[in-house]
Design a protein that fits this description.
Number of domains: 3
Strand order of the largest sheet: 1-2-3-4
Helix content: 25-40%
Distance between the termini: 54 Å
Radius of gyration: 26 Å
């Protein structure tokens, strides 16, 4: 808290009171409840959970309400709360092949094994304002959707059977935990994916778009995009086996990228990967594109100088909480710093004017 100015504490208390008043808005309008935010602003909830690294819809809804709809502020609140929670252990890797699919599409195979499910999507809407919503009109009932219960194989597995796509190498090594330890470079792929999944959606989207415009020479196809719920399991040492402790909704994207080959690898398709909490497909696709761009060095590809291929640039600038903190601190009091700068500029101006007079004489 800044209290360098006389009366600063009282001014801050007044600012907090004013903020609470602005948050509430017109008292004549019914207050927005946490339950309403949770149920009717699901995509905002999903972003806050993903970038806040905490899967809890109620807390995300509360944070959005407290932040007056500022999602980055809400993400900050969730991350701050997350640091107070005890760590009981780590869950096992989720099996996305066993996902109960709500949406599953492929841009590479029309007749995808397991079928395509459009699910709830904006893709085919006309982007026209629906004034029925403003009139609180009733929305027609949608057909009852039944998630696909049986396992849905990954499309890239079928390419892998013919050796047409670079295989993923499994490892038993425990990956680093970005939420517990600071980011260090060079980062392995697991650490890069952690950074991207909690990175700012707009930043990651911009990086992904840059690769599509030629900054990285990396044309991608969406091999598969799937959204649904997966079981979360945790191994209990006393029992000697894993038990299901809950389920979460995730969005998974695998991109298929052409690769001409290198001295180490034959011509084949390669992969980009994205996995994000909730229904967050724009972020998952963007993440997959950037993941593939950051793999240029390990693929032996030429570094074109594209921002999306620069590991340090991407990973150190994608975190919106870190970026916001550094950006917004400059609006807080810097009186002493500025006074020293002011004195320096005055001194330099005086010296320059004196030198000019000497030259004129």
């Amino acid at each position: 808290m800044y209290v360098a100015v006389k009366g600063g504490e009282q001014a801050i208390e007044n600012a907090h009171a004013w903020l609470a008043e602005e948050r509430r808005g017109d008292p004549a309008v019914p207050e927005l409840s946490v339950e309403q935010i949770r149920e009717q602003m699901a995509l905002a909830i999903n972003r806050v959970m993903a970038e806040g690294s905490l899967y809890d819809r109620d807390l995300a809804a509360l944070a959005i309400k407290q932040a007056r709809g500022d999602l980055i502020e809400a993400i900050f609140l969730v991350r701050a709360y997350r640091t107070t929670l005890p760590r009981f252990g780590y869950s096992s890797p989720v099996e996305t092949e066993a996902m109960a699919v709500d949406r599953r599409v492929s841009a590479t195979f029309k007749d995808a094994p397991g079928g395509q499910v459009l699910g709830p999507t904006f893709d085919y809407t006309h982007r026209l304002l629906d004034f029925k919503l403003a009139a609180d009109g009733l929305v027609p009932d949608a057909p009852v959707a039944t998630p696909r219960a049986e396992p849905t194989p990954h499309i890239t597995d079928f390419l892998n059977r013919d050796g047409l796509i670079q295989p993923e190498t499994a490892t038993d090594e425990t990956p680093p935990d970005l939420t517990r330890d600071p980011l260090e470079l060079p980062a392995d792929r697991s650490l890069r994916l952690q950074s991207l999944t909690r990175g700012d959606e707009g930043f990651v989207l911009g990086m992904a778009y840059s690769t599509q415009r030629g900054y990285g020479r990396n044309h991608a196809f969406v091999g598969e995009l799937r959204i649904g719920t997966v079981a979360v399991e945790m191994e209990i040492p006393e029992l000697g086996f894993s038990v299901e402790i809950g389920e979460v909704q995730v969005t998974e994207c695998e991109t298929v990228n052409q690769f001409k080959g290198s001295g180490r690898e034959p011509p084949q398709f390669t992969r980009g990967y994205g996995l994000v909490f909730g229904m967050t497909e724009r972020k998952a696709i963007s993440m997959a594109l950037v993941d593939r761009a950051l793999r240029a060095k390990e693929m032996g590809e030429e570094n074109t100088g594209a921002p999306a291929q620069d590991e340090e640039f991407v990973l150190y600038h994608c975190d919106n909480i870190q970026a916001t903190g550094f950006l917004e601190h400059i609006k807080l009091p810097h009186y002493v710093d500025f006074q020293s700068e002011l004195e320096l500029v005055r001194k330099l101006r005086a010296e320059a004017m004196a030198a000019g007079r000497e030259t004129a004489e």
